[in-house]
Amino acid sequence: MSESDFISGRSQKKKRLDTADAVILEEAIHRTERASDHLRSKLRGRLKITVSDTGEYIFDWSENRAHAYKLDGNDSPEVDASITLSEETLVRIAEGSLNPQICLLSEKINIEGSPELPIYFFNLITPT
User: By residue range, what is the domain housing residue 64?
Assistant: First the structure.
């Protein structure tokens, strides 16, 4: 690493968001720590995320902080809303190369229940 790389901060590697696990279980939780108070207040509840290629996840902010976990085949917790999408769509949204609103309109994302929690979840994972 050159001195200019060190000074400019280029030595810091950007985390790869190439899987649903990385986006939901790691990055979404990390981004809740940096989220505005307004966004945090809108994320209250339990969201089921079905990623057609990899499985089902729960993003749960019903306590004082957010939790996320992957469901096993026997779990079926009550949720406030559900999202269904492909892993590619989720990863591209988290990278910023795909707009979640366009995905909703083009039916790459399906929402069941109130749309408020899923919309704020996408606001959380979309880079600013």
Answer: 16-125
